[in-house]
Fold:
Amino acid sequence: MLKPLRRSGLWLALWCAAVLAVIVVCLIPPPPLALPQNSDKVEHFLAYFLLAGSAVQLFTPRRTLLWVGVGLVAMGIGIEWAQGALTTDRMADPMDALANTTGVVAGLLLAFTPLRDLLLRLQPR
Structure:
């Protein structure tokens, strides 16, 4: 399931912490920033691209990556639902869910490039 990384447990824990951080940041009250309209879509795309792309670095079988991708897409949709149903200072936005999904797909596509083993190549021998 996991690639033969040194300290694979640590890398997996860091990835899980990143997933948890995305969930928390998306559900806490937003900071009072004046950003251009719809610029948050880039943030959604990048967050989910990084989660999926780092999963490519950790997990070996394509079937596992497929399930990770399905889980991340479901997480993105669930967070959007939770923002609309469980918070008073956020609202559900289907375009955010689409940006999340696009980020997941783009991140998983790294599995078909030489970048798929970047973390393996960077670890000391």
